[in-house]
Amino acid sequence: MISIAALVLLAAPQSVAPLAEPSRTEPANNTARFALTTAPQSFDPLHADVTANQVLQRQIYEGLVEYAPGGPDAPVQGLLAESWENSADGLRWTFRLRTDARFHDPAKEALWPGGERTVIAQDVVQSWLRMADTRQGPRGYWAMEGLFEGMDAFRNASSGNHAQAAWEHVREQGIAGLRAIDTHTVELRLTRADPWFLNRLASPYFVVYPIEAVDRSGKDFLNQPVGSGPYHLTEWTPGSGAELERVPNWRGQTLPNGREAATIDSLRFRFVAEGSTRTLLFEQGEIDRLPPLQDSFARLLPKGELAPELAERGVNLHVVDTPDLSMLCFNMLDDAIGDLPGDSEGNRQRRILRQAIALAFPYERWHRVIRNEVWGMPARSFLPPALAEAARVEPCTYRRNDLESARAKLAEAGFPNGNGAPQLQLELGGTDPINAAIGEMFREAMEEIGLTALVVPNTWPELSTKMRNGEAQIFLRAWTLDWADPVNLLETFHSANLAPGINRCNYLVPAFDRDLDALRRQPTELRGPLLARAIARLNEDLPAVPIDHRKGYLLVQPWLLGVEVHPFDPFPCKYYALGHR
Amino acid sequence: MLATGPLFRFLTRSLRLVAQALGVVLLLFLVLESGIAGDPAERALGDRPSLRRLGELRVELGEYERFEASALEVRLSGNPGRVSLVPEENNLRIVGIDGKTLAIWSTESITLAEVPDAWATLSLYDNQRLDARLLNPALGRLPADGLVAALRGTRLVVDSRRAAQAPWAQARPSWQRFLHQTGKLLRFDFGRGLDGQAIGPALRERGLRSLAVAFPAWLLSTVCALSLAILATPRPNSRLDRHLGSAAAGVIAISGVSWVLLLRGWFAADLAWFPVTAWDPPSLHALALPVLIWAFLGTWPDFQVFRTALGEAARQPHTQAARARGLDESTVWRRHVVQSAAATLVAYMVLALPFLVMGSLILEQVFVVPGLGAYLAEAARTADAAILRAITFLLALFYLLSQCLGDWITGRLDPRFHAEELR
Questions:
Q1: How many structural domains compose chain A?
Q2: Residue range of the domain that includes A331
Q3: Half-sphere exposure of B64 (CA within 13 A, CB side)
Q4: Residue A142 near chain B (CB below 8 Å)
Q5: Interchain contact A186–B (C-beta under 8 A)
Q6: What is the pLDDT of residues B113-127, one digit of tens each?
């Protein structure tokens, strides 16, 4: 799942058309039809950072493991891997591949006789190493950076003068941290134990494909994918849509409910940029699932409940707690509200000022106006409730609207009634009415405790540049986790990721870094105290204030069966089936 | 003589055309260089930028010839504190916590190996020093101005609590990139977009799709507008003329987006006469609605232009003289009004042609037509300079070509222009 830094703000304008009658025309064949909200661009797994690319690639490629069907709590299960072992220290993993997994090449002049070849361990090595080859322009290396022994060294070599020789060497021999032991066994050596390693492997960056397909297509591999999954590509317009067909002799998979996977003959994906068009297509039965956005939310889901017309038609509603966090961020480089080395008294004063701002923030108004009372869940702590650890960490005590305490904090900071306090500056990431409403709400809230706030509208690139250069004082931001590991979120506060990296608050506390470094290596069951300490430090230092976690809504036509939404695997079409339309 | 011959005129005109197209490209290059559209490398990386990834992507985009992610390790020693290294021309500005400039360090004729000694002498706050260490001795002979180039668009924060790694880059000079890009454009080699897809084939395929909607719509709207103008103009201030004028004002006053959504909602949703999308799969039936909507929206502004042009022609002295000679009204219109307005009308119509290839951004988005309009919208959203450059170049070229065509037709239709040219 892609992580996003922009806080996507939702508005609910008036609907443009009444609910339409469902169309009488029903497709005769067994085709599922979906509308994508972003443009699909590439089938190359190196470009799996774009959501639409992930959705399409998920149907064609397979990794060693995947999320099992069964909703948000479904565990990771084997996919290309039949079994695996993990050493006691968590540093060595041995995966045994299944022997019946085969790549299928849909090209007329196929790579292999019969268009098929067995997936072997060498494919795993070569596919993952390609993600480290800087010449290929990989966009997902962050998922494996610093994790496998020798991987970073190869990455460095791949940008030097002997890049081709380095690649030729590792594609045959592997590296110390990633080797094929025999045709069906892969050994991985990690530089640190990672309790969420399997979840990481289930992400779209760790899929496997035959390197000869890359050799054949060169730069056009992004249009000619070859994978071992249940579907292959039959029609493709980059930036627009694709049609995938079931591989006739795919090995098959039996789901826990006894049903066979991948029973749908073909999948049709179209990029539909316009929200009202997507809604109309869904209402006419032309697409099978719809994440309703602002343009139609109030009409399709008044108060977050299915509209009676939709309920009557048997449309199903899925509500997903998005594993993310929306935050009010403070730039710790800023000399008015930040943290300056060597100035302990000033830092104490500024920390209390941040706490006062947090106590004055209008959370309820935000929930009502910006989230329409249904698009978000008020945050209790920094961790989204979708994470098992969320319930075990202390709540953020400053995340409450308590003006009296805010005023008391201001006085404690030496700014009674805001006297002598610096002017605050909220940088917005848009010039639309919703951003204007946020600015107004912030300014008024600060005024109530005697602080003056300047609200600066920016275009998104402008805000992005300001954040990158540490020039934005206060701003809003959301982070979506890539897998269910709290560390994935806390990384956004590690000093190794200072701007222009993902630590846009520029939080730099060596003790927090040490806790996080230790946390990365701890087995899940032993992480409690360290995690609690790291979160407690954030609660007190407040480089950011947790506001809420967004909720995702999905409408599914009555005939699309088997849809159970997993936050980290949102589009597993092979688990779906089509009933009578 | 060659100096006045048709070949000379053709050559000068062609050169002027290419120069104008390149001027547009230069303007676009400067706009994109200014960063107004955002940094393409940063846009492409989305929310996971880092100095290293930005640098590597700039190599991919041709902005850097070489990039080293870890050239120097930089520490701030002495009293606790923090400084930022901000790139400027050939200098690094060293900024303190309070935003004050502590030093401006010129990188001129200094190698990376000499940086540690040079920085040791910098005067910062009391008892603070900037310590640098060369991380890879093999890089020691590289010029230090690469430190400035690698920080373009951002800065390096050095905090006394943590060592920072400074990257190094060899930037390709702007003029070199401009020449390289221009050379490629003149060969119609548009390269690849940020998404890795080849731009040339995408332009061809998408241009044809846009034309499939735009051309019939243009034809229809032109015919309708011309017919209405010919109906209304001979009877100025008649009821028909007034009604048509009000209709045109009414249609133009409401935004195109509202019309598109309203008509789509009516014909595709409520009445279900047409499919909601026009390209899934494309068919005459599916394309009919966007074509009709475009024609409807295009008719009224055209009608107003045509009516004005015909009205002016109708008031010309030679038209009045023809009437005074007793010619019947239809002959006056055929021989004098229409003929004299023809040059203006044709020039107006021809100039609209290049924009047809671009399709309609709104219609293509609403009716899910994967044409050039949608392509341009996506390229603008992602600040994809290569696609924007290619589209702008082609559009400028088409526009200039159509201008030439318009001039030529006008010259043929209106003897006054021809006479002007002969003089």
A1: 2
A2: 324-551
A3: 26
A4: yes
A5: no
A6: 999 999 988 888 878
